[in-house]
Amino acid sequence: RNLRKMMECRSDINRLNNHFLLIYESLTPPGEEKTRQKQLLTLLERLVNKEWPEARLYLYGSCANSFGVCKSDIDVCLAIQDAEIDKSKLLVKLADILKSDNLQNVQPLVHARVPIVKFMDPVTGVSCDICINNVLAVINTKLLRDYAQIDVRLRQLAYIVKHWAKSRRVNETYQGTLSSYAYVLMCIHFLQQRRPAILPCLQEIEPTYSVTVDGIECAYFDQVEKLQDYGSRNKETIAQLVWAFFNYWAYRHDYTNSVISVRTGCLLSKQAKDWTRRIGNDRHLICIEDPFDTKHDLGRVVDKSSIKVLREEFERAAAIMQHDPSPWITLFEPY
Ligand code: ATP
Ligand code: MG
User: Fold this and answer.
1) Alpha-carbon distance 49 to 54, whole Å?
2) Ligand 1 atom 15: residue of nearest CA
3) pLDDT single digits (tens) 35-80
4) Which of 49, 71, 312, 331 has its CA 20 to 30 A from that of 246?
5) Does 322 lie in the same domain as 256?
6) Is the CB of 60 inside a 6 Å radius of any atom of ligand 1?
7) Same structural domain, 69 and 167
């Protein structure tokens, strides 16, 4: 039965291609959205620098990593060098500043895993989260953006996977499913593994970019304009890749022994990472190594019940990609 499930791709797969490309295009944000985001960032810089002239603001997450679909929130990191700072106090202070400038729904969430202030700008309609000194997120945002410039199929695949994950409600870390960041890493790893490869492994090439953040050395080859033709020997279309992505996570991935690793471009063993048993809340039921913070398994939020949900969703998606007459609709039917 398993062999049958791992069968060859349907013969009419390329008939689906235009449908998936249309979905990709419909999810792509219009240029004016970038303009509105920049406008809000300029306003924030003015407010923040009045109080903390040394502080800098950086965009991170989907508004800056090129995997943002229409109407995404924006994620901002406030970088401030002050050994004395108490993050909670700073967030509360920042919240007061935002409120006095008439920004709406301002909420400091000081007890969250990553403490933030949330708010909405009534002028641009953009919602925003601000965190403090989460510089590693700014760096991994750059890594994702650099990968996206190498081959357009990464962006196409990641948009479709994120749209599927949101529609099927498996993009909710507080419920034990995976973050958007984890899904994008799954897509990058998958494209590194195609033969011929569609993406290189940037951290395995002689670095042209290097910074040390929180004691972690982040180094990789970032002259991606030199890699424009990298994937051109591989002619797979987006429909074939969506099929193969779900087929991989439904039937081929070895959940018991393997860790996916964008850093090395390979699969690693759980044994080698010592991710074989539960420690505290980390269960390692699906293992996705963070490319810089290599002790961090992005799958650690997944528990015994959510792994079941996830794997059933991968199998559903794989079956739809194999048999359904209109997978570009069925795949995204709301859960
Ligand atoms: P969405 O479009 O769903 O908002 P997003 O790209 O903004 O997607 P999030 O999962 O909201 O993705 O994460 C925002 C950013 O925060 C990521 O790009 C990444 O830089 C960082 N990040 C998120 N989760 C983690 C994590 N578990 N470990 C390290 N960094 C993370
Ligand atoms: Mg986000």
Assistant:
1) 7
2) 61
3) 999 999 999 999 999 999 999 999 999 999 999 998 889 999 999 9
4) 71
5) yes
6) yes
7) no
